[in-house]
């Protein structure tokens, strides 16, 4: 099962609907605005993310995205798609394997690997893969899966204009 979709509603998968091997995906391309907005929200203004002159002299030679930008995409899948609304994060581990540069496209794949019946927890394998098929983040997540079906209107996000 690939639960990726972008409709006007968020609809979860309940614990009983999810099988080991089921997965969902999400693809995003990192833009300069994503880095700026992530810095505003998080307060992480590390010059490796914000300053091209500094970044040119760093080990990566160019501005890189925040590692947690990729991690937040995993959270997006778990909270909005699979399992979706009603899911509660219990644990997350992430290994950051390579940087994401402006213009890179990252595909997140979250796969159910283990179900724990007594507490309705599910363990997920989490991968963020760049446009070259290389892992940028690998990890696992443990989620308390919802037991009741939820279908909820997708929140319309405001338009943001960066000025600076």
Topology of helices and strands:
Blueprint: E1 9-11, E2 23-29, H1 32-42, H2 47-50, H3 52-56, H4 67-80, E3 88-96, E4 105-116, E5 121-129, E6 135-144, E7 151-153
Antiparallel strand pairs: 1-7, 2-4, 3-6, 4-5, 5-6
Largest sheet properties: 5 strands, antiparallel
How many domains would you count in the coordinates? 1
Q: For the CA atoms, what is the radius of gyration? A: 17 Å
Annotated CATH homologous superfamily? Hotdog Thioesterase
CATH class: Alpha Beta
Which percent range describes the beta-strand content?
Answer: 25-35%
- Strand line-up of the largest beta sheet: 2-4-5-6-3
Structural class: alpha+beta
Taken from the alpha-carbon principal axes, the silhouette is globular
What is the averaged pLDDT score? Answer: 94
Poorly predicted runs? 1-5
Helical region count?
Answer: 4
Number of strands: 7
- Amount of helix: 10-25%
CATH topology: Thiol Ester Dehydrase, Chain A
Named CATH architecture: Roll
Task: Give an overview of the whole structure.
The longest helix is centred in the middle third of the chain and has 14 residues, at 67-80. Helices cover 21% and strands 32% of the residues. The chain is α+β, with helices and mostly antiparallel strands and 164 residues long. It is built from four helices and seven strands. The strands form two sheets. It has a five-stranded antiparallel sheet, with helices on one face. The chain has one domain: Hotdog Thioesterase (Thiol Ester Dehydrase, Chain A, Roll), CATH 3.10.129. The chain is globular and about 55 Å long. Strand 5 and strand 6 form a beta hairpin.
